UniProtKB/TrEMBL annotation:
The active site is at H165, K730. It is an enzyme of class 4 (lyase). One of its GO terms (biological process) is tricarboxylic acid cycle. The keyword Lyase applies. One of its GO terms (molecular function) is phosphoenolpyruvate carboxylase activity. Residues 417-459 are annotated as: Disordered. Belongs to the PEPCase type 1 family. PROSITE patterns: PEPCASE_1, PEPCASE_2. It comes from the Eukaryota. Residues 417-432 have a biased composition (Polar residues). Coiled coil: none annotated. This is phosphoenolpyruvate carboxylase.
Length: 1063
């Protein structure tokens, strides 16, 4: 769960509505009390009434201490806090663990209740100012032309890229149960339930809460990259698959309301991407084989999901009227199926057919010579049924998916609306044209076709024959014939992916498979047009339209996989290659020499890399990865992202390695290389210096003759650039990083405009404020003017994926919010700084904040203090991600990834990286007499306003009482204790100057809802923090104590659940 989900926690659009002081939280309180009482029942059963009363008293003590602290009565709060600490310090482990688990589960379940409350408020008509209907209407009122509005919406492109990061501590099993609890809370809201029905719902809630309590919250082993990929696909299947058509329908309805035209069928206003299985930056577990398997797994699941939809659609489309276009497609489809099955003349129709073309009755009696229509080819045309591969022979990856997600169904499946529908269809489709009766006049198939037929027949299941009897009846169902063919190709696609995953050469002799989305969309759109032409448009706009919308959103891969690797790995690979060939050391060349070499090789036709070249294992893995990229290309993969990019040669190096892989594969298959299948290469600028130099790097790259021609011919003059929020914040602090990112975007917009290239910015945001997190609507609306322009890619990471997209109704709302934010940023860009003086003073504050940040974290004994005062050293035992917490072993903070860096400080409630240096920068402005100017910047400049509001939120979440406890108990060295005292003093000063700047009397004064939610959570987080301190102290004296290690992990999970934005 998270607080940065663009929900009622924020009043981002002040022009639309002010932050309400009396936001109705009564319903949320009721839900939390209900869940809490059910959880208490579980706790009573485990520890008994006597111990339960003791636990309840401790929770009450924590609540009173927290409330007194919030009200400013620090003396009383400290007294109660000390008493709480004393009691928890002496609590036996067998009593402490249930208390920790109960508080952690309560925080997790209350997060579910908060998400449900958000959906409830939306359904009650709460005005947000962000829905498609509200935003499109407002734009027209502001003078936007309806045609301009239609074009902007139809051509808009938003891609959300899901990533796995080591902050998602909640097991997928528990996420699934949380989703079920959210559904039951929704049902419990119904006013028309009878007393018995109400009791049933509460009983089911009790069952689910009990199941959560009885489920182990700890992972016993680290997830593999494929486990993470399955997790992302699971979110898509359980939530986004249903949410996307509903979201697009909302946008289309609003567009028609205000422009008179529906959203075009082919519009791709939303897409999804993934890094799970493709992000190998610092993660040795992600290999070329893993990437290949992740791609095939996604395509297999995509085919399976479409298969379920097609099965349900075939039952619905029983109409006989069709357009001439569709009827011609029916004949082509039958002929193709006949040819595949090996029956004589593929045009052999013989029957008396009754059908309706274009709404006019017609009859056609056609006798075509040849061997006629064979039973298997006909069955394929009518039902699309082929025997499934036996379950035991499936690749282990797919068996895991089948057992975990129940994606394999032999005879039945749940459709998206929850109705049980036979997988092959209950009703036997009419045969058009009918096959010959088995009277001896049916010519026998011979040779290979007969063997194939016999093999198929022997594999047919008895139940399948019962569901699909041989006999038929008169009439024609053209839509079912088309959909039967679609179904068969989807089956073939699954079989193709199974073969690849099993290491076998795919056998595609039995028919085609879907390699790209347009192949799947073509027959579906033909059915859609036919229904509209024959007066059945209302049917066309049902399930069929939903499937078409999914095809243009998810494609045939669900989420195209990006490949990411650090630039130094490409440099090392080229260095070995040039040394092997006697050209010298590539890594020692300057930028000019590198560019000359790379350009010369790219302009030439001969291969640079021999198939038999001898290289190290690390370089071989790089080359193997590019081979996978060349094999799957743009049909399955998205972009190739270069981490730590700092020069134009970093991009050309990847282009050269891509080309070499294509040449190698083409030579092996005796084909010409397809250079149009090249992935777009995306440089990722992360550190402060790289952000400052990004404009010059891109200018030099786009001035390269080969690259400019390649960009124009292959990528339609579009260049994507990724901006890193995590490492820039860890490198320079949040204020300096945010300002550098803002200026970098302005420079990139200007540079690419000058070069005549369209820019797409890819924002690598994390979940926490320290890593660029926060409400997406707020983030998009505070970007520099011209930086969006209808195109945007953005990451969602860690716990944010489940929080934003785990529940269909929440996901639908999120998608609409993001879409309207992009539209507003395109048509009415955010205001730039009104005065040049504002920009200059931002430079001054940025420099001051960066200086302070680096002085503090680079000071003597800071690394030792960090490791003693936080649980960072213990993260190695957390089985929460496949990716190591460090880029390389050893070293200090510089080798630590940004995610665990922030995660560790969040655990102690100091949340240092999100605010360090900001107080000093603002104080400098106040001391120089610029307070009034800072207030004007806050009121008028969206960028500065959003930045200050998010900092204020983090300051409200931090708790110096808890942070001081970690220092008191875990830090022994006096110099290190002094560091902690200094940090807490800096926090107090930061709070003081932020309140002066905003004019608030208390933190989050303009956001009382969030303040109230924090107050509700703190009594449950505080005891977990205290117990964590106790456990850390004991565990560091006995690091092999298994129960203590488990207890520590439970506290880490609980605190993460309560703090929400953790990494």
């Amino acid at each position: 769960m998270a607080d940065s989900t663009d929900d009622f926690h924020y009043a981002e659009v002040r022009a639309v509505r002010p932050a309400p002081e009396d936001y109705p939280l009564a319903s949320l309180d009721d839900d939390c009390k209900l869940i809490g009482s059910l959880l208490d029942d579980c706790l009573r059963l485990e520890i008994g009434e006597e111990h339960f009363l003791k636990v309840e008293r401790l929770r009450s003590l924590a609540g009173c201490a927290s409330q007194l602290f919030q009200k400013g009565d620090t003396d009383a709060s400290q007294f109660l806090s000390k008493r709480l600490v004393d009691e928890l310090f002496h609590l036996p482990l067998d009593q402490a663990l249930p208390l920790t688990r109960a508080c952690g589960h309560y925080l997790g379940l209350s997060g579910v209740a908060e998400l449900h409350h958000r959906v409830r408020r939306s359904r009650q008509g709460a005005v947000s100012g962000k829905s498609a209907d509200e935003v499109l209407g407002a734009l027209l009122q502001e003078g936007v032309d309806p045609q301009q509005l239609f074009d902007a919406v139809s051509s808009q492109s938003l891609e959300i890229v899901l990533t796995a990061h080591p902050t998602q501590v909640v097991r997928r099993t528990l996420q699934y149960k949380h989703t079920k609890i959210a559904a039951l809370l929704q049902q419990n809201d119904r006013s028309d339930l009878t007393p018995n029905e109400k009791e049933t719902v509460v009983n089911e809630l009790a069952q689910e809460v009990s199941a959560v309590w009885q489920t182990e919250e700890l992972r016993r082993k680290k997830p593999t990259p494929l486990d993470e990929a399955r997790g992302g696909l699971n979110i898509l299947e359980q939530s986004l698959w249903a949410a996307v058509p509903a979201f697009v329908a909302r946008v289309s309805a609003a567009l028609k309301k205000y422009t008179g035209r529906d959203l075009p069928l082919e519009a791709q206003i939303l897409k999804f991407g993934s890094w799970m299985g493709g992000d190998r930056d610092g993660n040795p577990s992600v290999t070329a084989e893993v990437t290949r398997n992740a791609v095939c797994l996604a395509r297999w699941i995509a085919a399976d999901l479409y298969l379920r939809e097609i099965d349900a659609l075939r039952l619905e489309l029983s109409m006989t009227k069709c357009s001439s276009e569709l009827w011609n497609l029916v004949k082509v489809t039958i002929n193709e199926d006949n040819a595949i099955a090996g029956y004589g003349d593929p045009g052999a129709l013989h029957s008396y057919v009754s059908y309706d073309v274009g709404g006019f009755a017609a009859q056609e009696c056609t006798m075509l010579t040849g061997t006629g229509v064979g039973p298997q080819s006909f069955e394929a045309a009518m039902t699309g049924v082929l025997p499934r591969a036996p379950f035991p022979s499936m690749p282990p990856i797919l068996r895991a998916v089948a057992s975990e997600n129940q994606l394999l169904h032999s005879e039945s499946s749940l459709s998206i609306d929850g109705q049980l529908t036979p997988t092959q269809g209950v009703e036997q489709q009419s045969q058009c044209p009918s096959r010959r009766e088995s009277s001896g006049s049916e010519p026998e198939a011979s040779g290979a076709a007969k063997k194939k037929l016999d093999k198929k027949s022997s594999q047919k299941l008895t139940v399948d024959k019962m569901l699909h009897p041989v006999g038929g009846h008169a009439g024609c169902h053209p839509y079912r014939i088309i959909l039967g063919s679609v179904r068969q190709k989807l089956q073939n696609t699954k079989k193709h992916m199974e073969d690849v995953l099993s290491g076998q050469k795919p056998d595609d002799d039995e028919g085609g498979w879907y390699d790209n989305p347009e192949e799947l969309a073509h027959p579906l759109k033909a059915c859609y047009r036919s229904l509209w032409e024959t007066g059945a448009g209302i049917i066309a706009d049902g399930r069929l339209l939903d499937i078409i919308r999914r095809v243009y959103c998810f494609g045939t891969t669900l989420m195209k996989l990006d490949v990411r690797q650090e630039s130094t790995r490409h440099t090392a690979a080229l260095d070995e290659i040039t040394n092997y060939l006697g050209y010298g050391s590539y890594s020692q060349w300057d930028e000019d020499k590198r560019l000359d070499f790379l350009t010369k090789e790219l302009l030439g036709n001969r291969p640079l890399i021999s198939p038999n070249i001898s290289v190290s294992d690390e370089v071989k893995e790089v080359i193997d990865t590019f081979r996978v990229v060349a094999e799957h290309g743009t049909s399955s993969l998205g972009a190739y992202v270069i981490s730590m990019a700092s020069a134009a040669s970093d991009v050309l190096a990847v282009e050269l390695l891509q080309r070499e892989a294509r040449l190698l594969i083409a030579s092996e298959n005796f084909k010409q290389p397809d250079h149009s299948n090249s992935l777009r290469v995306v440089p990722l600028f992360e550190t402060l210096s790289d952000l400052d130099g990004a404009g010059a790097v891109m200018d030099r790259l786009l001035s390269n003759e080969w690259y400019r021609k390649h960009l124009r011919e292959v990528h339609a003059d579009q260049q994507e650039v990724m901006l890193g929020y995590s490492d820039s914040g860890k490198d320079a602090g949040r204020l300096a990083a945010n300002w550098a990112l803002y200026k970098c975007q302005e420079t990139l917009v200007e540079t690419l405009k000058k070069q005549g290239v369209k820019l797409t910015l890819f924002h690598g945001r994390g979940g926490s404020i320290g890593r660029g997190g926060g409400p997406m609507y707020l983030a998009i609306q505070s970007q520099p003017p011209g930086s969006v322009s209808g195109r945007l890619r953005i990451t969602e990471q860690g716990e944010m994926v489940q929080a934003k997209f785990g529940i269909p109704a929440v996901a639908q709302n999120q998608l609409e919010i993001c879409t309207t934010a992009v539209l507003l940023a395109t048509l009415t860009p955010p205001r730039p700084p009104r005065l040049e003086e504002w920009r200059k003073f931002m430079d001054v504050m940025s420099e001051e904040a960066c200086k302070t940040y680096r002085e503090v974290i680079g000071g003597p004994r800071f690394v030792e203090y960090f490791r003693h005062a936080t649980p960072e050293s213990e993260f190695v035992n957390l089985n929460i991600a496949s990716r190591p917490t460090r880029r390389r072993s050893g070293g200090g903070i510089e080798t630590l990834r940004a995610i665990p860096w922030i995660f560790a400080w969040t655990q102690t409630r100091l949340i240092l990286p999100s605010w360090l240096g900001i107080g000093e920068a603002i104080e400098k402005g106040i001391d120089e007499g610029k307070l009034e100017m800072l207030k004007e910047m806050y009121e008028e400049w969206p960028f500065f306003q959003s930045f200050v509001d998010l900092v204020e939120m983090i300051l409200a979440k931090a708790d110096m009482r808890i942070a001081a406890l970690y220092d008191d108990v875990l830090v022994d060295d006096p110099e290190e204790k002094e560091i902690g005292s200094d940090l807490r003093a800096r926090y107090a000063k930061t709070v003081e100057v932020v309140l002066q700047l905003t004019g608030h009397t208390r933190l989050c004064e303009n956001n009382p809802t969030l303040r109230r939610l924090i107050e509700m959570r703190n009594p449950y987080i505080d005891p977990i923090n205290i117990l964590q301190v106790v456990i850390l102290r004991t565990l560091r004296g006995d690091p092999m104590h298994a129960r203590l290690r488990e207890a520590l992990l439970i506290t880490i999970n609980g605190i993460a659940a309560g703090m929400r934005n953790t990494g």
